[in-house]
Specification:
By secondary structure, this protein is mostly beta strands. It folds into two domains: 13-27 and 163-425, Neuraminidase (6 Propeller), CATH 2.120.10.30; 35-155, TolB, N-terminal domain (Rossmann fold). 8% of the residues lie in helices and 45% in strands. The protein is built from three helices and 31 strands. The strands form seven sheets. A five-stranded antiparallel beta sheet has the order 1-10-9-8-31, with no helix packed on it. Strands 2-30-29-28-27 form a five-stranded antiparallel beta sheet, with no helix packed on it. It is globular, with a radius of gyration of 23 Å.
Length: 428
């Protein structure tokens, strides 16, 4: 099967790393495809004994969350094979299963080795057999890796279950808002607190190697851009100009940041060389230029500007300085993000007075509204280009939501406490 305006605003601040807390995000699948692929995930154990993490359960949840698969419940299974040789295909055909995942685990020197196979039930064909290894605290990573491999083999699209998401949560505390910068697995598990502040935190963005984040913090009394290493917690302030310092975005090669500064007057797009520490002004216009995002080839920037009278999306070619308008449908298009194909543009689009997430094919110009909620904002695209996350409202509460680029699959990631906003999907 192949299926294919920011507010400006001293702060109490705490750095905490790598504190692990109870997972705050939960998954609520609201829409899947009409005919999902039925798949069986046989329990993956070590000689019949449970693993510290239920790998099979994680794989099943990953695939179900994609909306393209319908895993059969464990209680409906007629047998629990761990190798291809143990598979009785007739049993699985009776259940209407199209694909089956089996696996066995061994443990040596505190290293788990999982040998897993994907089989096509109808043809009794072994699609692949692979081996993955990791320590006890890496079992979730191994499970997500298995999910990625299965997803790609069946759909032809690389999986994105091994990725992470950064986001900002806001919770009232003693009559004031408390802001937290969080990182979690894309399924909401293993949530970690990176930064806590009484002042707003905005615009997290991942480095290409997924080892660092840049973000905006108001802890200095005005917006400033910070860079933080996730493994070491090393942190440095990159900007603190008067006025706006915002919307940082990492270049594909990891050497340069695009950002917005108003130090010379109007908000303009700049680039910042992380090695030479040199700022280069890229736009010069009386209008407001903001929200830059690199194209996948690193040769251009797309950004939001009201130079045409209302917020629209423009493209700046770095080498020539040429600026061209990309969006013409509707009176408001902002917060642009490009998928890895360089062709699919995702943005906040106003339609009938409501803010939705829309995509536009940059070749054909076709625009498609992907969401039906309201006050949708901050889209971020998965590295495989199949899904996007965005912030929205559920009642009066801020939540994260996800939708596939064809709008066929949707799910929510509400937090148990407080609001969540400003999602950023990691590159890998």
């Amino acid at each position: 099967m192949k299926r294919t305006a920011v507010s400006l605003g001293v702060c109490w601040l705490v750095l905490i790393f790598p504190l692990t807390v109870l997972a705050d995000l939960t998954i609520e699948i609201t829409k899947g495809v009409d005919n999902p692929t039925r798949i069986g995930i046989s329990p993956i154990t070590r000689d019949g004994r449970s693993l510290p993490e239920d790998v099979s359960k994680i794989v099943s949840a990953d695939l179900q969350r994609s909306g393209l698969f319908r895993p059969i419940p464990k209680e409906n299974m007629l047998s629990f094979p761990s190798t291809v040789k143990e598979v009785y295909y007739r049993d699985w055909r009776i259940l209407g299963v199209e694909y089956l995942v089996v696996g066995k685990t061994s443990l040596r020197d505190d290293v788990y080795q999982i040998t897993f196979s994907l089989v096509e039930v109808h043809s009794s064909r072994v699609v692949f057999t692979k081996v993955v290894k990791g320590s006890n605290n890496q079992l979730r990573d191994l499970a997500h890796y298995i999910s990625d491999e299965v997803y790609q083999a069946v759909t032809g699209i690389p999986g994105a279950f091994s990725t992470r998401v950064a986001y900002v949560s806001a919770l009232p505390s003693s009559g004031k808002m408390q802001f937290k910068l969080m990182v979690a697995d894309v399924d909401g598990a293993r949530e970690r607190l990176l930064l806590e502040s009484k002042q707003p935190i905005m615009s997290p963005a991942w480095s290409p190697d997924a080892k660092e984040l840049v973000y905006v913090s108001f802890e200095t009394g005005r917006p400033a851009i910070f860079r933080q290493n996730l493994a070491t917690a090393a942190r440095e302030q990159l900007t603190n100009f008067r006025g706006l310092n915002g919307a940082p975005d990492w270049s594909p090669d990891g050497r340069t940041l695009a950002l917005v500064l108003s130090k010379d007057g109007n908000p303009e797009i700049y680039t910042f060389d992380l090695q030479s520490r040199k700022f280069t002004r890229r736009t010069q216009h009386f209008a407001i230029d903001t929200e830059p995002n690199w194209t996948p080839d690193g040769r251009s920037l797309i950004f939001t500007s009201d130079r045409g009278g209302s917020p629209q999306i423009y493209k700046l070619t770095i080498a020539t300085g040429r600026v061209e308008r990309l969006t013409f449908t509707g009176s408001y298009n902002a917060r642009p993000r490009l998928a890895k194909d360089g062709r699919t543009l995702v943005m906040v689009h106003r339609n009938n007075g409501k803010f939705h997430i829309a995509s536009q094919d940059l070749v054909t110009g076709d625009l498609r509204v992907l969401t039906q909620t309201y006050l949708d904002e901050s889209p971020t695209v998965a590295p495989n280009g199949a899904m996007l996350l965005y912030a929205t409202k559920q009642g009066n509460k801020g939540v994260l939501a996800a939708v596939s680029l064809d709008a066929g699959v949707k799910f929510l990631l509400p937090a148990r406490h407080g609001d969540v906003r400003e999602p950023a999907w990691s590159p890998k």
